[in-house]
Design a protein that fits this description.
The protein is α+β, with helices and mostly antiparallel strands and about 130 residues long. It is about 55% helix and about 20% strand. The chain has a five-stranded antiparallel β-sheet. Helix 1 (about 5-45) runs antiparallel to helix 2.
Length: about 130
C-alpha cells in the first residue's frame, strides 16, 4: 500500500480531479445508454421483436466500450494508490499515516484542497479536520 503525505496527495489532486470528472461523464453516458436499452427490451417483450437489432447491438457495443474506459480510469487511480470511495460524490481516500497509524486523507470533488482525515474503518461520516 502506498502511503501519501499531505503534500504528495495534494500534488496529485489535479490529475485525480480530471479522472473523477471524466469517470462521472462516462457513467452518465452509460446510464443513459442502459436506460434506452432497457426501454427497447421492455417494448420487445411486449410484441416479441425489436425493430432495429443492429442499432441495439451497436448501442450495447458502445456501452461496453464506455465501461472499458471507466475501468481503465479506475485502474489508473488504483495504480496511483488512490482509493475511489464514491464516484457520484467524487469521494477519494489517500492512504496515509498519522501519529504512527494508518489513516485516510479524505477529499471530495469540489473541495479546494485536502482538509480532512479519518480512521480506516470510520468512513466519510468520521471525517475530522487536519
Amino acid at each position: 500500500m502506498i502511503l501519501f503525505t499531505l503534500e504528495q496527495a495534494e500534488a496529485l489532486l489535479p490529475q485525480v480531479r480530471d479522472e473523477i470528472l471524466a469517470m462521472q461523464a462516462l457513467k452518465r453516458e452509460i446510464d443513459d445508454l442502459r436506460g434506452g436499452l432497457a426501454q427497447v427490451v421492455e417494448k420487445a417483450t411486449g410484441n416479441g421483436h425489436v425493430r432495429s437489432e443492429d442499432a441495439v447491438a451497436a448501442q450495447r457495443r458502445h456501452a461496453e466500450r464506455l465501461v472499458e474506459q471507466l475501468n481503465e480510469r479506475l485502474a489508473r487511480l488504483n495504480a496511483w494508490g488512490v482509493e475511489l470511495k464514491g464516484l457520484d460524490e467524487g469521494l477519494i481516500d489517500f492512504p496515509s499515516e498519522r501519529e504512527g497509524r494508518a489513516v485516510y486523507l479524505c477529499w471530495r470533488l469540489g473541495e479546494e484542497r485536502i482538509a480532512w482525515w479519518h480512521e480506516l474503518d470510520a468512513g466519510f461520516a468520521g471525517r475530522q479536520p487536519l
